[in-house]
Amino acid sequence: MEMNLGEPVSGPSGAIPSRAISSKAMPLGAMPLGAMPSGAVPSGTARTITVLGCTGSVGTQTIELLASQPDAFRVRALVAGRNAKLLAEQAVALRAELAVVADPAAYAALRDALAGTGIEAAGGPAAVIQAAEMDADWTMAAITGAAGLAPTLAAIRRGACVGLANKEALVCAGDVMLRAVAMAGATLLPVDSEHNAIFQSLADGNRGAVEKIVLTASGGPFRTASLDDMAAATPEAALKHPVWSMGAKISIDSATMMNKGLELIEAARLFGLDEAAIEVLVHPQSVIHGMVYFHDGSVMAQLGSPDMRIPIAHTLAWPQRMETLSRRLDLAAVSRLEFAEPDLIRFPALRIAREALQAGGGAPTILNAANEVAVEAFLQRRIGFLDIAGTVDQVLQRLGTPKADSLDEVIGLDSLGRRTAQAIIPAIAA
Ligand SMILES: NC(=O)c1ccc[n+]([C@@H]2O[C@H](COP(=O)([O-])OP(=O)(O)OC[C@H]3O[C@@H](n4cnc5c(N)ncnc54)[C@H](OP(=O)(O)O)[C@@H]3O)[C@@H](O)[C@H]2O)c1
After folding, report:
1. Greatest pairwise CA separation for the chain in angstroms
2. Which atom of ligand 1 is nearest to the CA of 244?
3. How many whole angstroms from 145 Cα to the centroid of ligand 1?
């Protein structure tokens, strides 16, 4: 079925529309009945799009979906870190208005590649923010790590409809981001497959009847490995995810299960849930992405092939749906769905993230900062695999739970968390 951008948009009658998250201040059940989605598709026109992090794993899959329906989307800005070559190719293919590379050293290559195309080129961090500030109906936030915070906030502050892949921004600056969403009337649509599954499972609108949600986890490459094997794991082994093909940072987070810890915090923020109402289940087949338990005993789940194009397309077309070429789920071929409790001894990152969420304040900011530094140190072979969670734990114990109420406090804590992790890594590595 073709996505039809010409149809009028309306929420299901008498129910909360399959509503995007527009404010943490609105806990589950508190959203107004029949409210119109603020990020609704404009009728009869091509949707204007900006992609932040267009050259990465999520970014390139977003570009593929945009290219599959050129009449439905018009690209305003594409933003990458330093890969000027791919960025220029994407900008030309999609006839973007502006292409921006964050690394100033990559600007000349971008400018030269786009010479004569009529596409504007820019470089440097300020240009990234300006691109995010440009008017666009829908913005993909797919820069990795806390580096995505400022541009994502810039898009939110103009009241944009934002497809949020960049979970670290929400973990690092949850309250600040959600206050900005509420103030600007922006709309956050969860791109992470688990959160997108919860969002879709809440589509009947009965948010007040939710008992708990379940985020599933593939278990990563070390699901069945011994602690000894994990202690000796190389970056190559940790990067080899059995199900998903993703960028390096999230692949390592999946191997330590810190990814699920970050997702736990992300879910609490997005859906206004207490930590105790969010469960994690290891599900190696990655067919069920998330489940919602309601107080009448019903369980709603979203299923699909493990393919990020499905949740990306869901947010891109929301509140309608667009066709994708994703492999259709064949349950007979899958044959068995397995589930298990996560092992918190071999995967302490999940416990550490849960404790940081319970502690609140700036603990998640510190957790995210220390984790980014520790993942980088592991990829550079400066520390072992198990030292990633060990570093994060030590940094959190050292820094406690300071406040993170303002953006300045968040930025200060992020930097303190990074410095503290850098300072203890040599001792951990010794
Ligand atoms: N991959 C997945 O399947 C998946 C699933 C769910 C959620 N996510 C989340 O989505 C985000 C992106 O993940 P990914 O796997 O797509 O990462 P990735 O492959 O590493 O891509 C990161 C993107 O961000 C760009 N970038 C890096 N630093 C930047 C900066 N300072 N300013 C502007 N752009 C910058 C990169 O540009 P260059 O290529 O030029 O360096 C690239 O386009 C992460 O937060 C991740 O947790 C990913």
Report:
1. 63
2. 3
3. 8
Which residue's CA lies nearest to atom 30 of ligand 1?
81
Other Cβ atoms within 10 Å of 333 Cβ, number: 6
pLDDT value at residue 204:
86
Q: What is the mean pLDDT of each run of 10 residues along the chain (430 residues)?
A: 30 31 35 34 78 98 97 97 98 98 98 98 98 98 96 97 97 96 97 98 92 98 97 97 93 98 98 97 98 98 98 97 96 97 98 98 98 98 98 98 95 98 94
Of 200, 217, 209, 214, nearest to 302 by C-alpha is: 200
The model carries a pTM of: 0.91
What pLDDT is recorded for position 20? 52
Three-class HEC string of the chain:
CCCCCCCCCCCCCCCCCCCCECCCCCCCCCCCCCCCCCCCCCCCCCEEEEEECCCCHHHHHHHHHHHHCCCCEEEEEEEECCCHHHHHHHHHHHCCCEEEECCHHHHHHHHHHHCCCCCEEEECHHHHHHHHHCCCCEEEECCCCHHHHHHHHHHHHCCCEEEECCHHHHHHCHHHHHHHHHHHCCEEEECCHHHHHHHHHCCCCCHHHEEEEEEEECCCCCCCCCHHHHHCCCHHHHHCCCCCCCCHHHHHHHHHCHHHHHHHHHHHHHHCCCHHHEEEEECCCCCEEEEEEECCCCEEEEECCCCCHHHHHHHHHCCCCCCCCCCCCCHHHHCCCCCECCCCCCCHHHHHHHHHHHHCCCHHHHHHHHHHHHHHHHHCCCCCCHHHHHHHHHHHHHHCCCCCCCHHHHHHHHHHHHHHHHHHHHHHHC
Q: Which protein residue's CA is at the shortest distance from atom 28 of ligand 1?
A: 81
pLDDT score of 43: 55
Q: Is the CB of 166 under 6 A from ligand 1?
A: yes
pLDDT for position 155: 98
Q: Tokens 């303002």 map to which residue?
A: 406
> From ligand 1's centre to the CA of 331, what distance in Å?
31
Q: How many angstroms separate the CA atoms of 283 and 79, rounded? A: 34
- Are 136 and 49 in contact by the 8 Å Cβ rule? The answer is yes
pLDDT at 399: 98
Question: What Cα–Cα distance (Å) separates residue 409 from each residue in 72, 202, 240, 293, 415?
Answer: 41, 34, 36, 36, 10
